[in-house]
Fold each of these.
Amino acid sequence: MGLLILEVYDGIGSTSETLRLHISNALQGSRLLQQIQEYATSLETRVAERTTELTEAIQNLEDEIAHRKQVQGQLHHLNEELEQRVLQRTEELQAAYDRLKALSKEKDEFVSNVSHELRTPITNMKLYHYLLNARPDKSEDYLCLLYTSDAAD
């Protein structure tokens, strides 16, 4: 249509030349406006798509943060529980250690007493053995004394 208008006004003269330039500029401006509008529509579509992507990414990040906070709370709870169990086990081990120390002391006292109780008769037996071997002529007196002291105990 623009070319038809240019052909009609082609013969009019210099005014027609000016008019033709204005029409040409108007047509070129119209094409540029249409291209700009198409580009703006394209940009709006891209912005909308990108906005959707970013909104989804933000939602995913928020979900991840919420999940991590939940896991962190669970971890904190488990740490407290573990610390309580460690304290309980430490108390149990301390009690067992104290009991073992007491038993060890009792054992040492028992061994000491048994040792003392066994040494006295053994020493006496060694003495009689020595006397019997040293003075065989008095062995009958020693044996009699031994039986008498044994009967008294």
Amino acid sequence: MKDWIKKRIKECNANNIIIFPLREEDVEVVLVNSNPATIMTDEDIADKVYVEPLTVSVVERIIERERPDGILGTLGGQTGLNLTVDLEKAGVLDKYEVKVLGTSIESIQKAEDRDLFRKLMAELNDPVPESFAVDSIEDALKSAKIIGYPVVV
């Protein structure tokens, strides 16, 4: 249990390292978090805190209400990154003229999409293990025969 608590505190502290300087520069910080148990939902951390499901429709309503200039999807780890991409794909960021700050949508997609990542590594002449992106058990089994075991699915 102690390790779990330490990990959560480290994650929150890493985010606070970004949030506190923003607030020192008089940037209004609006946080959206689905976990009410985290330090990140403490109202002393941000100017406004929403404890809501992290979905496109919910976050769009918050964006519509708060009208932020920018969004830092990197503060939410994997969930925040994916949600930022989903907001972009849904047209929400363009609709409300919200800039993506930090990691670009293109960079997030290259890191998340296995095929795009593989192509990027090939362009950089950086070796990657043989792999396949699959959508079914049948395709996974076929790919495993080609690669050989052990495999990660």
Amino acid sequence: MRFIYMSLLLLMLLVTPIQAQTLNADVSLAFSSDLNTVVIGQQVIINFQANNSGADRVAGVTVIYVLPDALDFVASQDCLVLDRVLTCAFGTLGLGEQRDMDVVLIARQAGQIQTVARLIASQTDLDESNNHAQLELDILEAQDVALELSLAG
């Protein structure tokens, strides 16, 4: 099953219509979360936002995100996870179109994490500098939160 999934993903990324090479693609990625600080065992919702600001529609728009060890996948309506690699297929974005996808994760290890997601598409992108985005998240131990609350009160 894993081989089939990876083969299909690779085929989707490599097989590009001949006319797609001449299109002017410019996709970008924004990456955010509903919380900046979470406690171990707490869920956090991350959001991927893909945008097409190029002169043509863009096919095969996909976000690839490797889950850090501190976070585990919980749920998403639109994304698949295999071996800690999250794949979110946005499909085709029209000119000026923007789409969002939410993913629910759960914090498993304390620490400060910096994590990066990457956006890819079938067409060559005019500006690849905006095809990746970074997210910073602080994950605390439950006793650290209790101590902070007792000191504040």
